[in-house]
Amino acid sequence: MNICMIGAGYVGLVSAACFSEFGWKVACTDNDADRIEQLRRGSVPIYEPRLEELLERNLCNGRISFSTELAPAVGEADLVFLAVGTPMRRGDGHADLSFVFRAVEELAPHLDGFTVIATKSTVPVGTSREIERRLKQLRPDADFAVCSNPEFLREGSAIYDFTHPDRVLVGCDEERAKVLMERLYKPLALRNAPVMFVSRESAELAKYTANAFLAMKISFINEIADLCEAVGADVQEVATAIGADGRIGNKFLHPGPGYGGSCFPKDVAALIRTAREARSPLSLVEQVQTVNSERKIAMAGRIERAAGGSLKGKTVAVLGLAFKPDTDDVRETPAVPVVERLVARGAEVTVHDPVVDRLPDALAPLPGVALVADLDDAVRVADAVVIVTRWQEYERLPDVLTGFDRPPLVVDGRRMLAAERFERYAGIGR
Length: 430
Ligand code: NAD
Prior knowledge:
Elements: E1 2-6, H1 10-22, E2 25-29, H2 33-40, H3 51-60, E3 64-67, H4 71-76, E4 79-82, H5 98-107, E5 115-119, H6 127-138, E6 144-148, H7 158-163, E7 168-171, H8 175-184, H9 186-189, E8 195-198, H10 200-231, H11 235-243, H12 264-277, H13 283-306, E9 315-319, H14 335-344, E10 348-352, E11 370-372, H15 375-379, E12 384-387, H16 397-401, E13 409-412, E14 425-427
Parallel strand pairs: 1-2, 1-4, 2-3, 4-5, 5-6, 7-8, 9-10, 9-12, 10-11, 12-13, 13-14
Helix pairs in contact: 1-3, 10-12, 10-13, 12-13, 13-14
The structure holds nicotinamide-adenine-dinucleotide (NAD).
Nicotinamide-adenine-dinucleotide binds next to helix 1 and helix 5.
């Protein structure tokens, strides 16, 4: 089976690498010529555990190729995947579908023989139908079917998630497309991964519903964390107690500085927009968005209070810039609003991240903030150390601070370290 993957970002690259690992032939395309050139040289433009190894193997055995040219890749493909970005549209919070529709226009002239076009990008309900309408207009002669195949992988464990999915979801209204999609995912079905076929509308909406539900869990436990602080309970004990209940589950019950990343903020906003347009507003989800925005803003005040009431002239080391560990993705990372507000309160801020060499421009809008790669350097002269991202490296913080004459205050924004290991410790939700 020949696959064309349009978009070689987090989702496109991981999907392309895993499909080639299944044995399929994948032509991965992107309109970013530098990115394609880099990939051809065997260098991976994003940080994702195990991705380099998979790409190298399949590049060597010829099962994966990279190009900026769509024509041959689409012409030969049985399946064309759209894995381009769907960022938040400025102004109204809706998903910006311009990259999707541009890719559709670009691929249309090259369709040859029966082809399935499947969206891996997260797109609002009705988009598959709209892609179909546009393709029929552009190529009335072409034989194709449009499917929705939303992706549920998580950055940082993307290869594992792709190859061990809780489910593969396919929205499909056409028998020939269903047969192809079944064949595509056979290697996963053989390992007992459920491959679910639903309508295209259900598949599209399920992706947003999943992300909104997870965002709601995060905002919920964050509010409970605040209540714990106010009444003398410990959010970790509360989370463990409720997480033991199978109806609730223990995942996504970790308090923190608010969710960020390239998916939750934009997907929550787009779902709110879809619901309003359908005159079926989601007031609960709207509140989740509000709670999360306020939380990111409130973090600096929380740090200031823990530091005794003023940050003027104090040195603060912020640990973690990526929106979560094991990725170099800084899109909508909560670290940026936290740093901005620490600076506004007069703090001198140094930011550490283990993958700092991949993030040179991430703090460009914040002049005067130093970005360092060495944890010891980051905390050496700090009055306060704030953990924003749960990188495993920060587990060694107690050892790093051992022997300091004047150990800094540690504000554990992720509740990842034991309070007893520090002289001055303030953990969220305790
Ligand atoms: P990304 O920004 O990392 O990658 C998108 C890529 O598409 C870029 O490399 C861009 O150059 C390329 N592109 C844009 N227009 C193109 C065109 N016309 N032709 C060829 N290439 C084009 O984005 P991502 O994080 O991989 O996300 C892609 C989609 O998958 C989004 O809809 C996102 O919501 C969804 N998604 C992302 C994740 C995640 O963890 N990142 C998880 C699940 C779903």
